[in-house]
Protein backbone atom coordinates (compact mmCIF):
# COMPACT_ATOMS: atom_id res chain seq x y z
CA UNK A 1 0.00 0.00 0.00
CA UNK A 2 1.20 3.53 -0.65
CA UNK A 3 0.26 6.85 1.02
CA UNK A 4 -2.35 7.66 -1.66
CA UNK A 5 -4.05 4.27 -1.25
CA UNK A 6 -3.97 4.74 2.53
CA UNK A 7 -5.59 8.18 2.18
CA UNK A 8 -8.32 6.64 0.01
CA UNK A 9 -8.83 3.90 2.61
CA UNK A 10 -9.15 6.56 5.32
CA UNK A 11 -11.72 8.48 3.26
CA UNK A 12 -13.78 5.33 2.69
CA UNK A 13 -13.56 3.80 6.19
CA UNK A 14 -13.13 6.83 8.46
CA UNK A 15 -14.68 9.83 6.68
CA UNK A 16 -13.42 13.14 7.99
CA UNK A 17 -10.27 11.63 9.49
CA UNK A 18 -7.14 13.77 9.73
CA UNK A 19 -5.14 12.30 6.85
CA UNK A 20 -1.70 13.82 7.52
CA UNK A 21 -1.13 12.74 11.14
CA UNK A 22 -2.64 9.29 10.63
CA UNK A 23 -0.52 8.79 7.51
CA UNK A 24 2.61 9.85 9.42
CA UNK A 25 1.86 7.38 12.21
CA UNK A 26 1.22 4.49 9.79
CA UNK A 27 4.34 5.33 7.76
CA UNK A 28 6.41 5.12 10.96
CA UNK A 29 4.61 2.10 12.42
CA UNK A 30 4.32 -0.27 9.46
CA UNK A 31 5.37 1.52 6.26
CA UNK A 32 1.84 0.87 5.01
CA UNK A 33 2.04 -2.93 5.38
CA UNK A 34 -1.42 -4.16 6.47
CA UNK A 35 -0.20 -7.69 7.26
CA UNK A 36 2.74 -6.68 9.46
CA UNK A 37 2.92 -8.37 12.86
CA UNK A 38 5.42 -7.33 15.52
CA UNK A 39 6.23 -9.54 18.47
CA UNK A 40 7.08 -7.22 21.33
CA UNK A 41 9.93 -7.91 23.65
CA UNK A 42 13.38 -6.67 24.53
CA UNK A 43 14.14 -6.65 20.82
CA UNK A 44 10.85 -6.48 18.85
CA UNK A 45 10.55 -8.89 15.93
CA UNK A 46 8.63 -7.72 12.85
CA UNK A 47 7.03 -10.49 10.76
CA UNK A 48 5.49 -9.84 7.36
CA UNK A 49 2.63 -12.28 6.78
CA UNK A 50 2.00 -13.30 3.18
CA UNK A 51 -1.75 -13.73 3.53
CA UNK A 52 -4.60 -12.80 5.83
CA UNK A 53 -4.92 -16.39 7.04
CA UNK A 54 -1.20 -16.62 7.83
CA UNK A 55 -1.31 -13.29 9.69
CA UNK A 56 -4.26 -14.36 11.83
CA UNK A 57 -2.64 -17.72 12.56
CA UNK A 58 0.76 -16.23 13.51
CA UNK A 59 -0.75 -13.50 15.68
CA UNK A 60 -3.10 -15.97 17.41
CA UNK A 61 -0.29 -18.46 18.09
CA UNK A 62 1.94 -15.72 19.51
CA UNK A 63 -0.87 -14.40 21.70
CA UNK A 64 -1.67 -17.90 23.01
CA UNK A 65 2.05 -18.33 23.77
CA UNK A 66 1.91 -15.20 25.95
CA UNK A 67 3.58 -12.79 23.51
CA UNK A 68 2.39 -9.22 23.20
CA UNK A 69 1.61 -8.67 19.52
CA UNK A 70 1.11 -5.49 17.49
CA UNK A 71 -0.88 -5.90 14.31
CA UNK A 72 -1.65 -4.13 11.06
CA UNK A 73 -1.19 -0.71 9.51
CA UNK A 74 -1.11 1.23 12.78
CA UNK A 75 0.54 -1.64 14.70
CA UNK A 76 -2.19 -1.69 17.33
CA UNK A 77 -1.14 -3.50 20.49
CA UNK A 78 -3.33 -5.59 22.80
CA UNK A 79 -4.48 -2.57 24.85
CA UNK A 80 -5.33 -0.56 21.75
CA UNK A 81 -7.25 -3.47 20.18
CA UNK A 82 -9.16 -4.05 23.40
CA UNK A 83 -10.05 -0.35 23.69
CA UNK A 84 -11.17 -0.30 20.04
CA UNK A 85 -13.10 -3.58 20.35
CA UNK A 86 -11.02 -5.37 17.69
CA UNK A 87 -10.26 -9.06 17.68
CA UNK A 88 -7.07 -10.37 16.14
CA UNK A 89 -8.81 -11.31 12.90
CA UNK A 90 -10.69 -7.98 12.76
CA UNK A 91 -7.37 -6.17 13.18
CA UNK A 92 -6.27 -7.50 9.80
CA UNK A 93 -9.37 -6.09 8.06
CA UNK A 94 -7.88 -2.84 6.75
CA UNK A 95 -11.15 -0.91 6.84
CA UNK A 96 -12.05 -1.92 10.41
CA UNK A 97 -8.44 -1.39 11.49
CA UNK A 98 -8.33 2.14 10.07
CA UNK A 99 -11.74 3.05 11.54
CA UNK A 100 -10.62 1.82 14.98
CA UNK A 101 -7.28 3.61 14.62
CA UNK A 102 -9.11 6.85 13.77
CA UNK A 103 -11.34 6.42 16.83
CA UNK A 104 -8.30 5.85 19.10
CA UNK A 105 -6.52 8.86 17.58
CA UNK A 106 -9.54 11.11 18.17
CA UNK A 107 -9.91 9.92 21.77
CA UNK A 108 -6.22 10.56 22.52
CA UNK A 109 -6.33 13.92 20.74
CA UNK A 110 -9.30 15.07 22.85
CA UNK A 111 -7.51 13.97 26.03
CA UNK A 112 -4.32 15.78 24.94
CA UNK A 113 -6.27 18.94 24.11
CA UNK A 114 -7.84 18.88 27.57
CA UNK A 115 -4.36 18.75 29.13
CA UNK A 116 -2.53 21.16 26.79
CA UNK A 117 -3.24 24.75 25.91
CA UNK A 118 -1.48 24.65 22.55
CA UNK A 119 -3.43 22.67 19.89
CA UNK A 120 -0.25 21.88 17.93
CA UNK A 121 1.42 20.46 21.02
CA UNK A 122 -1.69 18.38 21.69
CA UNK A 123 -1.56 16.96 18.16
CA UNK A 124 2.15 16.20 18.46
CA UNK A 125 1.60 14.54 21.84
CA UNK A 126 -1.09 12.38 20.28
CA UNK A 127 1.14 11.32 17.40
CA UNK A 128 3.99 10.55 19.78
CA UNK A 129 1.66 8.42 21.93
CA UNK A 130 1.27 6.05 18.99
CA UNK A 131 4.84 6.20 17.68
CA UNK A 132 6.87 5.94 20.90
CA UNK A 133 5.73 2.36 21.50
CA UNK A 134 7.13 1.27 18.16
CA UNK A 135 10.84 0.70 18.46
CA UNK A 136 10.95 -2.28 16.07
CA UNK A 137 12.64 -1.81 12.74
CA UNK A 138 10.28 -1.49 9.82
CA UNK A 139 10.31 -4.14 7.10
CA UNK A 140 11.72 -1.86 4.39
CA UNK A 141 15.38 -0.84 4.32
CA UNK A 142 14.53 2.66 3.08
CA UNK A 143 12.69 3.48 6.28
CA UNK A 144 15.08 1.79 8.70
CA UNK A 145 17.29 4.85 8.86
CA UNK A 146 14.45 7.37 9.02
CA UNK A 147 14.46 9.40 12.24
CA UNK A 148 11.73 8.44 14.68
CA UNK A 149 9.40 11.01 16.15
CA UNK A 150 10.47 12.05 19.62
CA UNK A 151 8.56 13.39 22.62
CA UNK A 152 7.41 16.99 22.34
CA UNK A 153 9.36 18.14 25.41
CA UNK A 154 12.73 17.51 23.72
CA UNK A 155 14.00 20.48 21.69
CA UNK A 156 13.96 19.88 17.93
CA UNK A 157 17.65 20.63 17.49
CA UNK A 158 18.68 18.04 20.09
CA UNK A 159 16.20 15.52 18.72
CA UNK A 160 17.54 15.75 15.17
CA UNK A 161 21.17 15.91 16.28
CA UNK A 162 20.63 12.62 18.12
CA UNK A 163 19.25 10.95 14.98
CA UNK A 164 22.27 12.08 12.94
CA UNK A 165 24.93 11.00 15.45
CA UNK A 166 26.96 7.92 14.48
CA UNK A 167 25.60 4.58 15.67
CA UNK A 168 27.24 2.96 18.67
CA UNK A 169 29.79 0.37 17.73
CA UNK A 170 28.73 -3.16 18.69
CA UNK A 171 30.81 -5.48 20.87
CA UNK A 172 34.22 -6.48 19.52
CA UNK A 173 33.09 -10.10 19.22
CA UNK A 174 30.15 -9.16 16.97
CA UNK A 175 31.77 -10.46 13.77
CA UNK A 176 28.73 -9.98 11.52
CA UNK A 177 27.78 -6.60 13.02
CA UNK A 178 24.28 -7.83 13.76
CA UNK A 179 23.84 -5.17 16.44
CA UNK A 180 24.13 -2.38 13.83
CA UNK A 181 21.16 -3.64 11.79
CA UNK A 182 23.21 -3.77 8.60
CA UNK A 183 24.80 -6.66 6.82
CA UNK A 184 26.95 -7.16 3.79
CA UNK A 185 27.44 -10.16 1.58
CA UNK A 186 30.96 -10.69 0.26
CA UNK A 187 32.05 -13.56 -1.92
CA UNK A 188 34.97 -14.43 -4.14
CA UNK A 189 34.98 -16.29 -7.46
Task: Provide a concise account of the structure shown.
This protein is mainly alpha-helical and 189 residues long. It has helices at residues 3-13, 19-30, 52-64, 78-84, 88-91, 94-115, 119-131, 141-144, 156-164; strands at residues 36-39, 45-48, 69-71. The protein is built from nine helices and three strands.
What characteristics describe this protein?
189 residues, mainly alpha, 3-stranded antiparallel sheet, 9 helices, 6% strand, globular
Could you explain how this protein is built, in words?
The protein is mainly alpha-helical. It has one domain. Helices cover 50% and strands 6% of the residues. It has 9 helices and 3 strands, in the order ααββαβαααααα. The protein has helices at residues 3-13, 19-30, 52-64, 78-84, 88-91, 94-115, 119-131, 141-144, 156-164, and strands spanning 36-39, 45-48, 69-71. A 3-stranded antiparallel β-sheet has the order 2-1-3, with helices on one face. Helix 2 (19-30) runs parallel beside helix 7 (119-131), helix 4 crosses helix 6 (94-115) and helix 6 packs across helix 7. The longest helix is centred in the middle third of the chain and has 22 residues, at 94-115. The protein starts with a helix and ends in a 25-residue tail after the last helix. Residues 135-170 have low confidence and may be disordered.
